[in-house]
Amino acid sequence: xxxxxxxxxxxxxxxxxxxxxxxxxxxxxxxxxxxxxxxxxxxxxxxxxxxxxxxxxxxxxxxxxxxxxxxxxxxxxxxxxxxxxxxxxxxxxxxxxxxxxxxxxxxxxxxxxxxxxxxxxxxxxxxxxxxxxxxxxxxxxxxxxxxxxxxxxxxxxxxxxxxxxxxxxxxxxxxxxxxxxxxxxxxxxxxxxxxxxxxxxxxxxxxxxxxxxxxxxxxxxxxxxxxxxxxxxxxxxxxxxxxx
Length: 244
Description:
Layout: H1 2-19, E1 27-34, E2 39-46, E3 59-64, H2 67-83, E4 91-98, H3 103-111, H4 126-144, E5 147-157, H5 159-170, E6 177-181, H6 187-190, E7 205-209, H7 224-243
Parallel strand pairs: 3-4, 3-5, 5-6, 6-7
Antiparallel strand pairs: 1-2, 2-4
Helix pairs in contact: 3-5
């Protein structure tokens, strides 16, 4: 009987928790539409603590790919640095997946720059997704929030990192800073390593990283450490050539 009562109380506590879902302070979620493919995407937006108290102040924007997991992580990771003035306050914008499709199919379609024949899911729509971000997402954020239009950061990891690299190579001035983690250089037989690089017209900050154990020896399907080395050498070599 005691076990039954304990279980009942536990179930009640879970039901109460479900009714009061956790919310990130100063955040909201809205929908925007990619009119080219007639699909809706969710944007998760978090405003800095000083936003309502300083109506004349404008803020840089940090755009996060893979919003369903990246938005909460970035919100937590930046909370103390922003609130303690260790980093500049910024607006966080997480770009989610298209409605009506599973996250995997949406991100594989939107984040890959080339069509891979050996993939069952649709690939190769990165250029289309860049247009959606530039024409729809930027327009909405610029029109509704006090932003610094030329201070944008793009954050992407894995396939999101591949997408961010493609943006950096093809339309670098869309963002002033790039944070790229473990980019999927391996996709489509490392096709990104053959991508032509467009010279940025403005100073651009780029941070690329990979885990030291992201190799076959530790269970990865690819040697992502070596792939990142090749990517970095390509970018440095070609950008030096462009500006020399």
